[in-house]
Specification:
It contains one helix and five strands, in the order E-E-E-E-H-E. It is mainly beta. Strand 1 and strand 2 form a beta hairpin.
């Protein structure tokens, strides 16, 4: 899957833009993903991780 966080599984959300006249058009919200080199069980791997997982330190960045 392309736009999904590999740690928490957060993906895209869909909904509507709603105008003042109550016209509805489809809208997609994508998660804020970053490519990160992270340590996973002692091995460095490249991951797509959302910024919330980075901020809450669920992922330890490789140095």
């Amino acid at each position: 899957m392309a736009r999904v966080c590999e740690v928490c599984g957060k993906g895209r959300q869909v909904g509507f833009n709603v105008s003042h006249a109550n016209n509805k058009t489809k809208k997609v919200w994508e998660p804020n993903l970053h490519k990160v080199r992270a340590l996973i069980s002692g091995v460095t791997r490249g991951l797509k991780v959302c910024t919330r997982c980075l901020r809450s330190q669920r992922v330890q960045k490789a140095v």
